[in-house]
Every structure is written in C-alpha cells, then in structure tokens.
Amino acid sequence: MILQDLLDPTLDASSKGYPHHAQPMRRSEIGAQGWNVLRGDLPLPVAVIRRDALAGNLKWMQEFAAGRGVGLAPHGKTTMSPQLFRKQLDAGAWGLTFATVGQLRAGVTAGAKRCLIANQVFRSVDLQGIADLKRAHGGLRIAFLVDSLAQLELIEGWHVAQQGVEPFEVLLELGLDGGRTGCRTHEQALALAQRLRSGKATKLVGIECYEGLGATGDSGKDTAYADALMQRVRDIAKACDEQQLFETGEILLTAGGSAIFDLVADHLKLQLSRPVQGLLRSGCYVTHDHGTYHRFMNAVATRMGCGHGLHAAMEVWAAVQSCPEPGLAILTVGKRDISYDLELPLPIAFVKPGSENLTPAPTDWTIGGLNDQHAYLRGTGPEHQALRVGDLVALGISHPCTTFDKWRWMPVVDDQYNVRDAIVTCF
Amino acid sequence: MILQDLLDPTLDASSKGYPHHAQPMRRSEIGAQGWNVLRGDLPLPVAVIRRDALAGNLKWMQEFAAGRGVGLAPHGKTTMSPQLFRKQLDAGAWGLTFATVGQLRAGVTAGAKRCLIANQVFRSVDLQGIADLKRAHGGLRIAFLVDSLAQLELIEGWHVAQQGVEPFEVLLELGLDGGRTGCRTHEQALALAQRLRSGKATKLVGIECYEGLGATGDSGKDTAYADALMQRVRDIAKACDEQQLFETGEILLTAGGSAIFDLVADHLKLQLSRPVQGLLRSGCYVTHDHGTYHRFMNAVATRMGCGHGLHAAMEVWAAVQSCPEPGLAILTVGKRDISYDLELPLPIAFVKPGSENLTPAPTDWTIGGLNDQHAYLRGTGPEHQALRVGDLVALGISHPCTTFDKWRWMPVVDDQYNVRDAIVTCF
C-alpha cells in the first residue's frame, strides 16, 4: 500500500479474509457490498472489529482522560491503522504515540499533528526521518525519549553535521531497576537533563515513564507501585523546573498504558512554573480484549467504584474443519491469525451454518493449542459433542496488538455481523 | 498490494524496514539502490534474507527430493512470498502447497500449475474460489484434503447446486490418535474412500498425512513413529488401489514437513496398479533457522551420515537503544518483528557502527524476553559490558513462518549485507 494512499487504499484477494470472488476495490467501498460474516460471504478465518464496541471504547477512553484533566495520545503501535488513528484524533485525542519513526510516518500521513515516540531515537536514518517530516509538515510536533548520555551524543553527532535542523524535542525517560529503558535514579536523570540543557541538538520538553510492565492486577500492589513510580516522575519534573532545564512553554508529563492508567492519571497533573500537559498513552483500549485487558479493566472498574465502558471489539471467526475424536474439534485458524503471546484465544460464541443465532460458547470450551493454521477446540459437554464440520466459532483474544499485526485489513461489523466498513493496517 | 501485481509491486515507507527517505519504487528496483544494512541505510529493525544461503537451501532441498525419487511441493504458508514461490518452482518443484484458498490464489498468481491444499476445504466461498481459479487457469490442478463424511456432504451439497463444475481432486487424510485432522483408523479411511468413489463431487487422487507434529529430534523414536505412520499410509493406498477407488492416472502420496522429511521420503514410493508420485511438502527449509529446524536438521544429517546443505538464511537486525543496567542491553526489536512461538530469538552477531566487521555473539548472550517493540539482551562477559547505544545486533530465529508473517517486504542481502534484491509477502 502506498503511503499517500493509507486512508483509502485498494484492497484485493491477496489479503486474507477478502472474498475470493470480489473485485479489487477501495477500502471505503467495502461497507456497501452487503457482505455478512455469518452468511458465509467471507473466507475464514477473518478478524472482525465490532463497530459499536469500537465507538464506545473511543468515547469512553477520551472521556476518562478528559475527566481526569489529562490528554490522550493513544499508542498507534497497537493497531497501525490510519482509519483508527483518524477516529482517535476525531474523538479528541491530543495526538498519537508511536514506537518507531516508520510508525510515526504513517501517523503523520493519517493526520496527526502532535506525536510522541515513546522510544529512544538515535540513528541517523531515523533522526533524518524526523527532520524531513517536520520540514514537510509545518507545525508538526514530535518528541522522543532520551535516557542516556550515549544516546544524546549520537544525536549531537548527527545534528552538528547538519545545516539548519531545529533541535529535537525530547522527553526524559525514567525507568525502574530491573525494568526496561529509562534512567534508574533521580541523580542520573537530573544529570542527563542538565546535559540536555547545555546542548544544541535537543530541547527538554517533558518527563516520561511507562508503568505497564509492572502491573499485576492486584490493586493494592499496583497502587503502591504506581504511586512510587509517579512520585519519582513528579520529583524529577520539579527539579528540572526549578533548575530551568525545560525549554518549552508547556511541559509534558506522560505515562499510561491500558492496564493501570487510572493509577497514573492523577499524578500527571502538577503545578510547575509553566503549564503542564499530562498525557496518557493507552493503545489497547481501542479494541480492548477478552483476556488480559479484560481482567485489568475489571480491577480499574473496582477502583473507580463504577463500571467501565470498554468492550471487547475484536473477534476472530473460524470454521470447524474436522471433529476427529470425541472432545476435539479442529478450527481453521492458527498462529498466523490470532494472538497467543499472553494467552491462547478464548472461545466466545458459535453458530450453525444457515443460522444467524449466536450461542455463547459453553464454559467447558477451551483452545488447547494452536498450530500455524489450526486451533484445537476442546470441550466435554453436549454442545461440543454437537459441533459439526462447517459450524462457525468466534474466538476472543488476549492482547490486541498481536492480532492486529496478523491482518492487513479487517471488516468492521454491526451486531448482525454485516460488514459496514473496513480498516487497513500498515505494519 | 494488488493480486495481479504480486511479483513486482510498488513498495514505500508504509512498510517497516523501508528507508524513510526513499521514494516509492518497484520491488525489482530495490536491488539497484546501493543500500547496505551495516552502513545504516535501513531503519531498524529489519528482517533480511541472505542470498547465498537461500540459493543453497533451494538447491539442496530440491536435490534431496530428486535423490529420493519424490517430488517437492513446498508449503507456501511459510513465506507467502510470490518471489520465493517462483524460485521454488524454478528450482524444480513439482508444485506448491497451501493451507487456504486465499493462499492458493497468491500461489497460482505467482505461476503455480499444480497445487495441494494440505487442509480440509468445505465452505461454499472456498469451493467456489477453487472452481473459479480452475476455470480461469486452464490445466491448473488443485487437490485438497478430505477426512470426514461430514466434510464430504458439505462439498456434495454445494456441488449438486452448481452447473458444470468438475469434480474436485481430493486426498484422503490419515491422522493419528491424539493428533490433529485426519482419519484415525484404516477402516474409517477406507469407508470414506469408498464413499468418495461413489460420489460425483470428488475424485480421490491420493493419500496424505502430516508427520511433523510428532517429531521429537530423537532419531530412534522419530524413525519408529514415521515408519508406523507411513506404513498406515501405504496400507490405505494399497487398499484403495486394490478396490479401484482412485480416479486418477497418477496417484499422489504426500507427507513431509521440514523436521523429519528424510524419514518419510522413502515411504512415498510404492508399486501400485498405476504410477505413484511421492510428494514432500517442506516449507521451512527455504530459509531454515537458527533454532528448532537447525536442531532437527542436525539429526537429519546424522541419520544421512553426511552433512546437510541447509543454512539459516533469515536474520533480524536491531540496534542497542539503551544499556540501563549492567548485564542488560535493550534492542529495538520486539514481538511485532520476530518469532517467539517456539523459542525466543538467538543473538548471532554484532557490529559497531561505522564498522563492517561482524563479531559472532558470545555464548553468554541471550534474549531474556520480548515486549511488543523491545528485546532484552542479557550477558555477563566483557563483550556485553562493551555494548553501546547504536551497536547493531543480529538475531537468529526459531521458526521461519512466524517471522515471515511480521514483514511485508524483506531485503535480500549478500555476505556484506548489501541489499541485492527484495521479496514481498502477501499474508
């Protein structure tokens, strides 16, 4: 797909899930074809996005951020879908977050004006890519992470050899002992901030951390953990502000994945010498899921003392292709099609061919394993015994990111599984 | 990418690994750009295919099959790359194997004339897809698997409602107790073959099984297992031949993944009342790997009493982005970029920026974990202590399939990592 054409590319049967018989057409034409998943119009497996759940998720998360007085810069790596980027921006997102300059380019092409790269940037090819994008898009803001002097020296080495490249906006990353990237101590972070202030290649515009890897689902533990981490973020922000190390009119404070974002949001508001913009970077909320994030959100809801408004919007549909032994049905879906990194897929519903009546999957059904192109649906009860070749089974997912990256397009369906729209991805 | 244009599509920076600054261009133009991975011309991570190893693998596997007197129908699901399909056909493959009708379409578009679908087909949309392809491509042969009466009845139900659709060529699948698809017993298989003979929707053209899921790497066990399974294949082939259940001039006998194909190859030769074409369906051999298949092939080489000619042809390159603690370097590569289903990636080499001298990765280096966009490179020795932000690290893979499906294009490089060619994928 061509970058200029990301919003409405031409699709065809070279992408799985696209009907074999359908002519190539623009993405925007798909919703008018009258296709229905349950009626058998699409080859299986197919990953679908439920329209109403998606719309609800976009709205709820944006309202959550607004209600806490922070902005939302959804992480685009989850979906890498220009259509979903647009929906997130239209819903009121402050901007978008990415992990790489390549992802950033897709986001800017889709219309993002304010972008975070929640990752270290240091290679010439990537620094040049950012400089080129800013030159091509007037007013575009891009801030990336810095966590070491070694990284800064690479940036400075590249910058000094250029003519007229603006300083890069950077966020100082705080990390945790035993964690991933980020300065481990206040002293390291402050020393790096001072060094940033004295250089010409960068401007310090804020502080960043990522709390998601330490989330457990235990509210007591998670609250103590988030409080301690965010206190460190606030302390370094205050110290940088007192020493006038920020070179920006508005200081960015950012944290927040999709697991315990409620525990960090309030900490992103802070009184400093100039305005502070708090930013959550949640990505998985957009489709939510049936597993890991479902459980994390149950804990969020308990902490909030009310329900939450996220609903699982992504399902992968497959057919029973063989019932070779009692208790075992083989489905036409596998590792190439659905997430398996956090846990195996979860059976959620089934339907007999010719029917449009979904039956919720019985609790005895489990996916016992995946091969590249097959899933092992095991069960003990009468509904499993009644499964036949051709029956359709819907699987829920755990971790949206690793299902998104297995599909180049996905139909967007209504509650009757009519295909009403389509999105594409650009991994 | 448009189906008609699979062999030479236009690529651009919407696909990761493509240089940000490069204009969109045809795949075939990439080899002339003078890009070099070590020199930093490509953003990282990037998955590369080593040209000479690829060429050697294509040749060795084809010669292996010829030496055993069987044909090769490489499984296309591994790569889903029209360029690699062409190379496999040009190397002498009998045809290609696929898992779905969607995959098949890409293979036929790439030039395959004889195709196996090593999977059950039964849905109307897929049966119609096969019929349409055969109508559009004179002389195209497509055979798929049948393992149950329920499946056959769905095929017959669709076929009887059509006008003038030729019977489908089908292979009877034999399976194993506790296994995946396939008839569990000789009696089941023979009864199904008899039923196939009496129907008008199908023609039985051969027998299929898949042994790969039961491979252990222990030659004694694997030999006994393969012998027993293949004896069942031969027995049912003989029984079907005696009862004149085959409706074909040439009977196909097919098995063989990339793990213990040497143990099934000889069993695919059989004297029946008409010619028998044995077919191996190995897929992963084309790039081989540094993990699972590397170990399986060591066992194959020991059994053969000589070396084997497969070499790991796929590597994923990343950069060190942070060295936040002693013993830990964070790399710019994650679950979205590299296989992790059979085991985590394996560090194989590193290079300092500005150098073109690769150093083999020390044995103390391991990838301790992956996030979506990050890898944790751990080590204890002096080379790990000397790692700096910006250093390049090459990772080997275990299981080619699940790295291929994370990339839309891959550069093909020479031994100096000059980009000499490119392939695309169409998952």
UniProtKB/TrEMBL annotation, chains A, B:
Belongs to the DSD1 family. SUPFAM superfamilies: PLP-binding barrel. It comes from the Bacteria. The keyword Lyase applies. GO terms for molecular function: lyase activity. Residues 313-414 form the D-serine dehydratase-like domain. Pfam families: Ala_racemase_N, D-ser_dehydrat. The keyword Lyase applies. Keywords: Lyase. This is Amino acid deaminase.
